[in-house]
Write the C-alpha coordinates for this entry.
Amino acid sequence: MLFPMEHTKPVTRAFGILTAGGDCPGLNAAIRGVCRAAHIRYGMRVVGIANGFRGLIEGDARPLESEDFSGILTRGGTILGTSREKPFKAQADERETVLDKVHAIKANYRALGLDCIVALGGNGTMTTSYLLSREGLNVVGLPKTIDNDIVGTDRSFGFHSALSIGTEAIDRLHSTAQSHNRVMVIELMGHKAGWLALYAGVAGGGDVILLPEIPYDICAIARHLEERRKSGKTFSIVAVAEGALSREEALMDKKERTKYRAETASPSIAYRVAREIERETGMETRATVLGYVQRGGIPSASDRVLATSLGTAAADLLAEGAYGRMAALTGDCVSSVGLDVPADKVKTVPPAHYMRATAAAVGTCLGG
Ligand code: F6P
Protein backbone atom coordinates (compact mmCIF):
# COMPACT_ATOMS: atom_id res chain seq x y z
CA MET A 1 0.00 0.00 0.00
CA LEU A 2 1.48 3.34 -1.03
CA PHE A 3 0.79 6.60 0.66
CA PRO A 4 2.38 10.05 0.37
CA MET A 5 4.54 11.14 3.29
CA GLU A 6 4.57 14.85 2.63
CA HIS A 7 4.57 15.77 6.30
CA THR A 8 7.14 13.33 7.62
CA LYS A 9 10.85 13.18 6.89
CA PRO A 10 11.57 10.91 3.90
CA VAL A 11 13.72 7.88 4.67
CA THR A 12 15.71 8.29 1.42
CA ARG A 13 17.85 11.41 1.15
CA ALA A 14 19.72 10.60 -2.07
CA PHE A 15 19.11 8.08 -4.83
CA GLY A 16 20.56 7.13 -8.19
CA ILE A 17 18.31 6.61 -11.18
CA LEU A 18 19.10 4.49 -14.24
CA THR A 19 17.37 3.06 -17.30
CA ALA A 20 18.42 -0.42 -18.45
CA GLY A 21 17.60 -2.84 -21.27
CA GLY A 22 15.87 -1.84 -24.51
CA ASP A 23 14.48 1.69 -24.50
CA CYS A 24 10.79 2.47 -24.93
CA PRO A 25 8.42 5.42 -25.05
CA GLY A 26 7.58 6.64 -21.54
CA LEU A 27 11.01 6.29 -19.93
CA ASN A 28 11.51 10.04 -19.73
CA ALA A 29 7.97 10.53 -18.43
CA ALA A 30 8.75 8.04 -15.65
CA ILE A 31 12.11 9.69 -14.87
CA ARG A 32 10.27 13.00 -14.62
CA GLY A 33 7.59 11.45 -12.39
CA VAL A 34 10.11 9.95 -9.95
CA CYS A 35 12.38 12.98 -9.89
CA ARG A 36 9.74 15.68 -9.62
CA ALA A 37 8.03 13.91 -6.74
CA ALA A 38 11.25 12.87 -5.00
CA HIS A 39 13.22 16.09 -5.51
CA ILE A 40 10.60 18.81 -5.46
CA ARG A 41 8.10 17.22 -3.10
CA TYR A 42 10.39 15.27 -0.78
CA GLY A 43 13.64 17.25 -1.20
CA MET A 44 15.77 14.24 -2.15
CA ARG A 45 19.08 14.53 -3.99
CA VAL A 46 19.04 12.83 -7.41
CA VAL A 47 21.99 11.26 -9.24
CA GLY A 48 21.53 10.30 -12.89
CA ILE A 49 23.45 7.14 -13.82
CA ALA A 50 24.40 6.83 -17.49
CA ASN A 51 23.71 3.80 -19.68
CA GLY A 52 22.05 1.45 -17.22
CA PHE A 53 24.09 -0.84 -14.99
CA ARG A 54 27.18 -0.13 -17.08
CA GLY A 55 27.20 3.40 -15.67
CA LEU A 56 26.89 2.02 -12.17
CA ILE A 57 29.86 -0.28 -12.75
CA GLU A 58 31.95 2.50 -14.28
CA GLY A 59 30.81 5.25 -11.93
CA ASP A 60 29.45 7.27 -14.84
CA ALA A 61 26.98 9.52 -13.01
CA ARG A 62 26.05 13.16 -12.48
CA PRO A 63 23.73 15.12 -10.21
CA LEU A 64 20.34 15.90 -11.70
CA GLU A 65 18.63 19.20 -10.95
CA SER A 66 15.06 20.34 -11.61
CA GLU A 67 15.91 21.64 -15.08
CA ASP A 68 17.21 18.18 -16.09
CA PHE A 69 13.81 16.58 -15.67
CA SER A 70 11.82 19.46 -17.01
CA GLY A 71 10.47 19.39 -20.59
CA ILE A 72 11.03 15.65 -21.01
CA LEU A 73 7.50 14.29 -20.53
CA THR A 74 6.84 13.82 -24.23
CA ARG A 75 10.34 12.87 -25.36
CA GLY A 76 11.04 9.35 -26.68
CA GLY A 77 14.09 7.33 -25.61
CA THR A 78 15.84 8.01 -22.31
CA ILE A 79 17.81 11.08 -21.28
CA LEU A 80 20.03 8.79 -19.20
CA GLY A 81 21.00 6.40 -22.00
CA THR A 82 20.73 2.64 -21.64
CA SER A 83 22.63 -0.59 -22.17
CA ARG A 84 22.00 -4.33 -21.96
CA GLU A 85 24.70 -4.75 -19.29
CA LYS A 86 23.70 -7.54 -16.88
CA PRO A 87 26.31 -7.56 -14.12
CA PHE A 88 25.29 -10.97 -12.76
CA LYS A 89 25.25 -12.69 -16.13
CA ALA A 90 28.50 -14.29 -17.17
CA GLN A 91 29.83 -17.54 -18.57
CA ALA A 92 30.99 -20.14 -16.07
CA ASP A 93 34.63 -19.14 -16.60
CA GLU A 94 33.85 -15.47 -15.94
CA ARG A 95 32.97 -15.71 -12.25
CA GLU A 96 35.66 -13.19 -11.47
CA THR A 97 34.04 -10.72 -13.84
CA VAL A 98 30.73 -10.97 -12.00
CA LEU A 99 32.43 -10.47 -8.64
CA ASP A 100 34.40 -7.49 -10.00
CA LYS A 101 31.28 -5.86 -11.41
CA VAL A 102 29.25 -6.33 -8.24
CA HIS A 103 32.18 -5.03 -6.22
CA ALA A 104 32.42 -1.95 -8.48
CA ILE A 105 28.67 -1.34 -8.18
CA LYS A 106 28.81 -1.45 -4.40
CA ALA A 107 31.83 0.84 -4.33
CA ASN A 108 30.18 3.40 -6.62
CA TYR A 109 26.91 3.21 -4.69
CA ARG A 110 28.83 4.16 -1.55
CA ALA A 111 31.03 6.75 -3.28
CA LEU A 112 28.00 8.53 -4.74
CA GLY A 113 26.40 8.64 -1.29
CA LEU A 114 23.25 6.82 -2.43
CA ASP A 115 20.55 5.47 -0.15
CA CYS A 116 18.83 3.67 -3.03
CA ILE A 117 18.86 3.02 -6.77
CA VAL A 118 15.74 3.41 -8.89
CA ALA A 119 16.03 1.03 -11.85
CA LEU A 120 13.70 1.44 -14.82
CA GLY A 121 13.66 -1.66 -16.97
CA GLY A 122 12.18 -4.97 -18.01
CA ASN A 123 12.54 -8.54 -16.77
CA GLY A 124 16.34 -8.57 -16.92
CA THR A 125 16.55 -5.28 -15.02
CA MET A 126 14.17 -6.50 -12.33
CA THR A 127 16.26 -9.67 -11.96
CA THR A 128 19.45 -7.62 -11.60
CA SER A 129 17.68 -5.28 -9.15
CA TYR A 130 16.53 -8.24 -7.07
CA LEU A 131 20.04 -9.72 -7.01
CA LEU A 132 21.53 -6.34 -6.05
CA SER A 133 19.04 -6.02 -3.23
CA ARG A 134 20.12 -9.48 -2.04
CA GLU A 135 23.68 -8.12 -2.07
CA GLY A 136 22.56 -5.51 0.45
CA LEU A 137 21.81 -2.52 -1.83
CA ASN A 138 18.52 -0.69 -1.69
CA VAL A 139 16.73 -0.85 -5.04
CA VAL A 140 13.30 0.23 -6.27
CA GLY A 141 12.13 -1.00 -9.67
CA LEU A 142 9.90 0.55 -12.32
CA PRO A 143 8.44 -1.72 -15.03
CA LYS A 144 9.00 -0.63 -18.62
CA THR A 145 8.86 -2.62 -21.82
CA ILE A 146 6.93 -2.62 -25.05
CA ASP A 147 6.62 -6.40 -24.61
CA ASN A 148 4.33 -6.08 -21.53
CA ASP A 149 5.87 -9.27 -20.19
CA ILE A 150 6.84 -8.29 -16.63
CA VAL A 151 5.32 -10.45 -13.89
CA GLY A 152 3.75 -8.49 -11.02
CA THR A 153 2.23 -5.61 -12.98
CA ASP A 154 -0.83 -5.67 -15.20
CA ARG A 155 0.85 -3.32 -17.63
CA SER A 156 4.28 -1.83 -18.25
CA PHE A 157 4.74 1.58 -19.83
CA GLY A 158 5.90 1.51 -23.45
CA PHE A 159 3.38 -1.17 -24.37
CA HIS A 160 0.55 1.15 -25.26
CA SER A 161 2.73 3.35 -27.52
CA ALA A 162 4.10 0.31 -29.35
CA LEU A 163 0.57 -1.04 -29.70
CA SER A 164 -0.52 2.19 -31.39
CA ILE A 165 2.44 2.03 -33.78
CA GLY A 166 1.79 -1.64 -34.57
CA THR A 167 -1.90 -1.01 -35.13
CA GLU A 168 -1.24 1.91 -37.45
CA ALA A 169 1.19 -0.22 -39.43
CA ILE A 170 -1.43 -2.96 -39.84
CA ASP A 171 -4.01 -0.37 -40.91
CA ARG A 172 -1.61 0.85 -43.58
CA LEU A 173 -0.85 -2.68 -44.77
CA HIS A 174 -4.58 -3.31 -45.18
CA SER A 175 -5.01 -0.89 -48.05
CA THR A 176 -1.98 -2.08 -49.99
CA ALA A 177 -2.89 -5.74 -49.33
CA GLN A 178 -6.36 -5.07 -50.73
CA SER A 179 -5.06 -3.23 -53.81
CA HIS A 180 -2.69 -6.05 -54.73
CA ASN A 181 -4.78 -9.01 -53.54
CA ARG A 182 -1.90 -10.12 -51.34
CA VAL A 183 -1.29 -11.76 -48.01
CA MET A 184 0.69 -9.36 -45.81
CA VAL A 185 2.73 -10.82 -42.96
CA ILE A 186 3.74 -8.27 -40.34
CA GLU A 187 6.24 -9.05 -37.58
CA LEU A 188 5.95 -7.38 -34.20
CA MET A 189 8.39 -7.53 -31.30
CA GLY A 190 8.03 -10.10 -28.54
CA HIS A 191 10.48 -12.99 -28.24
CA LYS A 192 8.83 -14.95 -25.47
CA ALA A 193 5.47 -13.23 -25.04
CA GLY A 194 2.98 -12.35 -27.75
CA TRP A 195 1.11 -9.47 -26.07
CA LEU A 196 2.02 -6.91 -28.70
CA ALA A 197 1.20 -9.15 -31.68
CA LEU A 198 -2.07 -10.24 -30.07
CA TYR A 199 -3.27 -6.74 -29.17
CA ALA A 200 -2.10 -5.05 -32.38
CA GLY A 201 -3.44 -7.99 -34.38
CA VAL A 202 -6.88 -7.67 -32.80
CA ALA A 203 -6.84 -3.85 -32.99
CA GLY A 204 -5.85 -3.99 -36.66
CA GLY A 205 -8.31 -6.75 -37.57
CA GLY A 206 -5.63 -9.34 -38.37
CA ASP A 207 -6.90 -12.54 -40.00
CA VAL A 208 -4.16 -14.69 -38.50
CA ILE A 209 -2.17 -13.92 -35.32
CA LEU A 210 0.84 -16.04 -34.36
CA LEU A 211 2.23 -15.96 -30.82
CA PRO A 212 5.16 -17.70 -29.11
CA GLU A 213 2.58 -19.16 -26.70
CA ILE A 214 0.69 -21.07 -29.43
CA PRO A 215 2.95 -23.11 -31.74
CA TYR A 216 1.52 -22.77 -35.23
CA ASP A 217 0.47 -25.34 -37.79
CA ILE A 218 1.08 -23.96 -41.29
CA CYS A 219 -1.65 -26.23 -42.70
CA ALA A 220 -4.24 -24.70 -40.33
CA ILE A 221 -3.13 -21.21 -41.41
CA ALA A 222 -3.33 -22.17 -45.10
CA ARG A 223 -6.82 -23.62 -44.63
CA HIS A 224 -7.97 -20.41 -42.94
CA LEU A 225 -6.59 -18.21 -45.72
CA GLU A 226 -8.13 -20.43 -48.40
CA GLU A 227 -11.52 -20.26 -46.71
CA ARG A 228 -11.24 -16.48 -46.72
CA ARG A 229 -10.42 -16.54 -50.41
CA LYS A 230 -13.40 -18.81 -51.10
CA SER A 231 -15.65 -16.38 -49.25
CA GLY A 232 -14.53 -13.62 -51.63
CA LYS A 233 -11.78 -11.97 -49.54
CA THR A 234 -8.86 -11.43 -51.88
CA PHE A 235 -6.33 -10.31 -49.27
CA SER A 236 -5.32 -11.22 -45.71
CA ILE A 237 -3.26 -9.84 -42.83
CA VAL A 238 -1.06 -12.11 -40.71
CA ALA A 239 0.42 -10.61 -37.50
CA VAL A 240 3.42 -12.56 -36.20
CA ALA A 241 5.32 -12.13 -32.94
CA GLU A 242 9.08 -12.34 -33.50
CA GLY A 243 9.22 -15.36 -31.20
CA ALA A 244 6.40 -17.28 -32.92
CA LEU A 245 7.33 -20.88 -33.61
CA SER A 246 5.95 -23.85 -35.48
CA ARG A 247 4.66 -27.05 -33.86
CA GLU A 248 7.76 -28.86 -35.08
CA GLU A 249 10.06 -26.28 -33.47
CA ALA A 250 8.13 -26.46 -30.21
CA LEU A 251 9.16 -30.12 -29.92
CA MET A 252 12.87 -29.36 -30.40
CA ASP A 253 15.37 -28.67 -27.63
CA LYS A 254 16.94 -25.22 -27.49
CA LYS A 255 20.10 -26.13 -29.43
CA GLU A 256 18.19 -27.90 -32.19
CA ARG A 257 15.71 -25.03 -32.46
CA THR A 258 18.41 -22.35 -32.70
CA LYS A 259 20.04 -24.26 -35.56
CA TYR A 260 16.73 -24.91 -37.32
CA ARG A 261 15.72 -21.26 -36.99
CA ALA A 262 19.00 -20.01 -38.37
CA GLU A 263 18.51 -22.29 -41.38
CA THR A 264 14.82 -21.62 -42.02
CA ALA A 265 13.81 -18.25 -40.57
CA SER A 266 16.22 -15.89 -42.24
CA PRO A 267 16.25 -12.91 -41.95
CA SER A 268 13.42 -13.34 -39.45
CA ILE A 269 10.28 -15.35 -38.73
CA ALA A 270 7.95 -13.16 -40.85
CA TYR A 271 9.89 -14.13 -43.97
CA ARG A 272 9.64 -17.83 -43.20
CA VAL A 273 5.91 -17.61 -42.52
CA ALA A 274 5.44 -15.65 -45.78
CA ARG A 275 7.39 -18.29 -47.74
CA GLU A 276 5.39 -21.08 -46.11
CA ILE A 277 2.06 -19.41 -46.89
CA GLU A 278 3.05 -18.87 -50.51
CA ARG A 279 4.17 -22.49 -50.78
CA GLU A 280 0.98 -23.89 -49.19
CA THR A 281 -1.59 -21.61 -50.84
CA GLY A 282 0.02 -20.14 -53.95
CA MET A 283 -1.13 -16.71 -52.75
CA GLU A 284 1.24 -13.81 -53.35
CA THR A 285 2.66 -12.96 -49.93
CA ARG A 286 4.89 -10.17 -48.59
CA ALA A 287 6.65 -9.70 -45.27
CA THR A 288 7.10 -6.50 -43.25
CA VAL A 289 9.23 -6.30 -40.11
CA LEU A 290 8.41 -3.28 -37.96
CA GLY A 291 11.54 -3.56 -35.83
CA TYR A 292 12.77 -0.62 -33.78
CA VAL A 293 10.09 1.74 -35.08
CA GLN A 294 7.97 0.13 -32.34
CA ARG A 295 10.29 1.42 -29.63
CA GLY A 296 10.91 4.90 -30.95
CA GLY A 297 9.23 8.25 -30.72
CA ILE A 298 6.88 10.00 -28.36
CA PRO A 299 4.91 8.09 -25.72
CA SER A 300 1.15 7.75 -26.08
CA ALA A 301 -1.09 9.64 -23.64
CA SER A 302 -1.82 6.37 -21.86
CA ASP A 303 1.91 5.60 -21.40
CA ARG A 304 2.58 9.14 -20.16
CA VAL A 305 -0.11 8.70 -17.52
CA LEU A 306 1.09 5.23 -16.49
CA ALA A 307 4.77 6.24 -16.42
CA THR A 308 3.98 9.34 -14.36
CA SER A 309 1.81 7.39 -11.91
CA LEU A 310 4.34 4.58 -11.45
CA GLY A 311 7.17 7.14 -11.24
CA THR A 312 5.52 9.09 -8.45
CA ALA A 313 4.65 5.80 -6.72
CA ALA A 314 8.36 4.93 -6.81
CA ALA A 315 9.09 8.28 -5.13
CA ASP A 316 6.64 7.32 -2.38
CA LEU A 317 8.44 4.00 -1.93
CA LEU A 318 11.72 5.94 -1.58
CA ALA A 319 10.16 8.28 0.97
CA GLU A 320 8.86 5.33 3.00
CA GLY A 321 12.10 3.40 2.71
CA ALA A 322 10.11 0.54 1.14
CA TYR A 323 13.10 -0.86 -0.72
CA GLY A 324 13.37 -4.08 -2.71
CA ARG A 325 10.04 -3.40 -4.41
CA MET A 326 8.74 -2.64 -7.91
CA ALA A 327 5.96 -0.11 -8.46
CA ALA A 328 3.12 -1.86 -10.27
CA LEU A 329 -0.30 -1.45 -11.79
CA THR A 330 -2.87 -3.83 -10.32
CA GLY A 331 -6.28 -3.43 -11.89
CA ASP A 332 -7.02 0.26 -11.55
CA CYS A 333 -4.64 0.79 -8.62
CA VAL A 334 -1.00 1.71 -8.37
CA SER A 335 0.65 -0.64 -5.90
CA SER A 336 3.99 -2.39 -5.47
CA VAL A 337 5.35 -5.94 -5.34
CA GLY A 338 8.60 -7.39 -4.02
CA LEU A 339 11.39 -7.56 -6.63
CA ASP A 340 11.38 -11.34 -6.20
CA VAL A 341 7.98 -11.39 -7.97
CA PRO A 342 9.21 -10.30 -11.46
CA ALA A 343 12.78 -11.65 -11.06
CA ASP A 344 13.70 -14.41 -13.51
CA LYS A 345 10.20 -14.69 -14.94
CA VAL A 346 8.33 -13.78 -18.12
CA LYS A 347 4.62 -12.95 -18.19
CA THR A 348 3.27 -14.80 -21.21
CA VAL A 349 -0.27 -14.67 -22.56
CA PRO A 350 -2.16 -17.27 -20.47
CA PRO A 351 -4.27 -19.90 -22.28
CA ALA A 352 -7.46 -18.54 -20.68
CA HIS A 353 -6.74 -14.87 -21.37
CA TYR A 354 -9.83 -13.08 -22.68
CA MET A 355 -7.94 -11.63 -25.65
CA ARG A 356 -7.37 -15.09 -27.09
CA ALA A 357 -11.10 -15.74 -26.86
CA THR A 358 -11.82 -12.29 -28.33
CA ALA A 359 -9.58 -12.96 -31.32
CA ALA A 360 -11.11 -16.38 -31.91
CA ALA A 361 -14.64 -14.99 -31.54
CA VAL A 362 -14.14 -12.54 -34.42
CA GLY A 363 -12.87 -15.35 -36.61
CA THR A 364 -9.12 -14.77 -36.26
CA CYS A 365 -6.96 -17.86 -36.68
CA LEU A 366 -4.37 -18.21 -33.89
CA GLY A 367 -2.39 -20.73 -35.86
CA GLY A 368 -3.04 -23.74 -33.60
O1 F6P B 1 12.42 -4.06 -25.65
C1 F6P B 1 12.22 -5.45 -25.75
C2 F6P B 1 12.54 -5.85 -27.11
O2 F6P B 1 11.83 -4.96 -27.85
C3 F6P B 1 12.22 -7.26 -27.60
O3 F6P B 1 10.90 -7.48 -28.01
C4 F6P B 1 13.20 -7.41 -28.73
O4 F6P B 1 13.42 -8.72 -29.06
C5 F6P B 1 14.40 -6.76 -28.17
O5 F6P B 1 13.92 -5.72 -27.36
C6 F6P B 1 15.40 -6.32 -29.17
O6 F6P B 1 16.16 -5.24 -28.73
P1 F6P B 1 17.74 -5.07 -28.84
O7 F6P B 1 18.12 -5.32 -30.23
O8 F6P B 1 17.94 -3.66 -28.39
O9 F6P B 1 18.35 -6.04 -27.90
